[in-house]
Amino acid sequence: MRTLKLLAGAATLVSASAMATGLPAVDAVALPADQIVLASVIDAKALNAVADAVQIIDIRGDKEAFEAGHIPGAVQIGYGAFRGPKTNPGALPKLNELTQALEAAGLRADAPVVVAHFGEDATDFGAAARVYWTLKSTGFSNLSILNGGTKGYLAAGYPAAKGPVTAEPSTLELSFNDQWYASTDTVKARVESGEGRLLDSRTPAFFAGEAWHGAAKKPGVLPGADNFAFTAFFNEATLKSQAEVNQIVSDNGLAQGQTVSYCNTGHWAATNWFVLSEVAQVPDVTLYAESMVEWSNADLPMDNVPGAVKFAWLKAKKWADGLVN
Q: Helices (H) and strands (E) in the chain — how many of each?
């Protein structure tokens, strides 16, 4: 049996372009799904080589956009299926509803899955990282994110499929594994004990208490948290190479176990979780899925909270600027 293992920067079948970029690539060898082991990140060329043997999830929520052009073989499962309600978007989805959505798309837990975000910017990657985290936490083990997303794939010259896709439904028995999850109670215990690291994945304005999510009660950060914005890992919409990621992690002291990654709603934080846990292979990294929206609405302790006068000014400015976080 010949197993094709796609490793970031070190594929079993490596092309010259892969060696130059540090991204995975393979030659065009057709292999059955049970012989493909995906790396956590896959590029367009590598995906094209194995597309017929993997499940591709297009996580755009826009049905018309999907039907106007998608990766051949992809099924659509909108990002919303992996999220909570508007009042707490980072909350875990109801397991029965998630199961139904995945079954309707024909997903199988025993086959490799590639998650394709649109690829407009680094925030899009965060959606894919959250989907990857959710699938991994519910029993899917052979997973990858398409670097550059659907937009990058099509821009590389590979053909698009158009029109609706009808999948043959599957049957799944999912359960949630909390190995990569930090609940509000867990984070509260970490804050009180001072153990481990709380890593704020947001951009500096959020960490400074000058910006906040619309569903959060107020701006601020977890007490004692450090800040490392997820954007540092990207060249526009593309995750940097394995070597660059490793260097960033090393230079910034991010290879620390017992790290809890958080943001506003577990979206940007999913990127930092993914990069540290799945790419840099830092042990014991967890995601606080509900993040600051749930924490702030629970009236738990926060640092960098603006005073009443400054908060009123920030709210007026946000309204005037039409700022949407």
A: 12, 13
